[in-house]
Write a structure and sequence with these properties.
Length: 443
């Protein structure tokens, strides 16, 4: 429809010019010459000759069609991205990918990646990726849409701001590095932040950095985590932080939660997480799955919304995403699907009442409520299928970083304390009895 409309708009001025030219010629001819010219067919007024009728321009190639990698992006059809692109493509929006870095030389990301920061290697700037995780995430958000080769992102006109916080093993040892990355991204123009990482512990430093992002009107998206990368079924932090769009993963049928997805009461929304194709660092592609790759679909959708309405506050962007989600499970928000499955087109078109605050930021931060000085380690929440099994989760029995609160007392000291208290009580009772008997004898 857009191409036909463009064709008509281009064709109309040409027809109008021809009509005006003919009218001017008519005005210059005498009545006799006008009749003769009309009979001779030299002047055509109102009815153009058949050969003058312009044929419509051919429809431009669809960005949804192309090579095998493009055809394998089933999520584009499932999310009806083609219609969403008629309203916005993400132009003018910067999305920070706080991850393992981004391969800026990948064909799908050339020209899409801004100068970033490397918080693991001081000599880097985030534009290289030893793991490949951040590259796959970035292409899902903003893979180029000017050809029919490789993968295209949800917001192909958006820009990626890379911030490396994950080491060569796809981990971070202290959440403070993620907190630094969040603050740096906010200060360098990010309107949306994607965090496809997390851990069991909490972090006061990261909680404060997220609050800083909220105060600066930034939308923050994080994955809920994968069961294969965790010894716990609790939604991972920072997805648990109030105000964050916590994204769980869906199966391809759009009806069932992906079996490997962690979910819980903090889950906000779901998006496709299985049988995905990802851009691989070094220029290739691989199969990926996990909530790490569901989250960037939500981040890309936030970029589309912010591009269409540049002055819309972050709270309203989030509200549009959750209010237009396709409900799954029990009516309303639930602990499995959150508000439902992401619907980008509805988020760009529906009538949604304005809000003044972030509708998700309604409870105390677990990062601050459990304040402590111990580091909170974490990792990326999923690994590409070809890369082998995901790294084994850390041993949380001896890793104090998994919980920021002081550890509870162990049972043995507790029993000793009870025996001691009982002995003191018995001694006090005997002393009291002796005192009473002495007092009785003296009286």
């Amino acid at each position: 429809m857009g191409a036909t409309r463009e064709c008509c708009e281009r064709e109309f001025p040409a027809r109008q010019a021809a009509f005006d030219h003919a009218r001017r010629r008519c005005a210059l001819l005498s009545p006799v010459r006008l009749v003769a010219a009309a009979l001779a067919g030299f002047v055509a007024v109102g009815v153009p000759a058949a050969s003058a009728v312009a044929t419509p321009f051919a429809e431009p190639p669809s960005p949804l069609t192309g090579d095998q990698f493009r055809q394998d992006e089933w999520q584009l059809t499932a999310l009806n991205i083609a219609e969403a692109w008629t309203y916005s493509t993400g132009a003018g929006i910067t999305v920070a990918v706080i991850d393992s870095g981004v391969d800026a030389t990948h064909p799908d990301l050339v020209g899409q990646v801004l100068p970033g920061r490397d918080l693991v290697d001081p000599k880097g700037n985030g534009d290289s990726d030893q793991v490949g995780h951040g590259t796959s995430v970035s292409a899902i958000i903003a893979g180029r849409g000017d050809d029919q080769v490789g993968v295209i992102g949800i917001a192909p006109k958006a820009k990626i701001l890379p911030v490396r916080v994950l080491d060569a093993e796809n981990r971070y040892d202290d959440a403070i590095v993620v907190a630094k990355g969040v603050r740096w991204a906010v200060d360098h123009g990010a309107r949306v932040i994607n965090l496809s990482l997390g851990g069991n512990g909490t972090s006061a430093a990261l909680a404060a950095a997220l609050d800083y992002a909220f105060a600066k009107d930034v939308v923050v998206v994080a994955c809920t985590g994968n069961t294969s990368a965790s010894s716990d079924t609790e939604v991972w932090y920072p997805a648990r932080e109030p105000g964050v769009l916590a994204v769980a993963g869906m199966e391809r049928d759009g009806e069932r939660l992906w079996s490997g997805s962690i979910t819980g009461k903090e889950t906000v929304i779901t998006a496709p997480a299985t049988q995905l194709v990802g851009a691989r660092a070094g220029g290739g592609y691989w199969r990926v799955q996990g909530t790490s790759f569901a989250a960037p679909m939500v981040a890309g959708t936030a970029a589309l919304i912010r591009s269409r309405w540049p002055t819309m506050p972050a709270g309203e962007v989030i509200n549009r995403i959750i209010k237009t989600a396709k409900d799954r499970g029990p009516a309303g928000r639930d602990a499995t699907f959150g508000f439902g499955v992401l619907d980008p087109t509805a988020a760009l078109t529906a009538e949604v009442p304005a809000v003044f605050d972030n509708p998700l930021d309604t409870s105390p931060s677990p990062g601050i409520a459990r304040f402590g000085s111990a580091p909170a380690p974490g990792q990326a929440q999923s690994a590409p299928e070809e890369s082998g099994s995901a790294p084994a989760p850390r041993d949380t029995t001896n890793d104090s970083g998994q919980a920021a609160a002081p550890p509870p007392s162990t049972p043995e000291p507790s029993h000793r304390a009870r025996w001691l208290a009982g002995a003191l009580f018995l001694i006090s009772t005997l002393a009291a009895l002796l005192t009473v008997r002495r007092f009785a004898h003296t009286t």
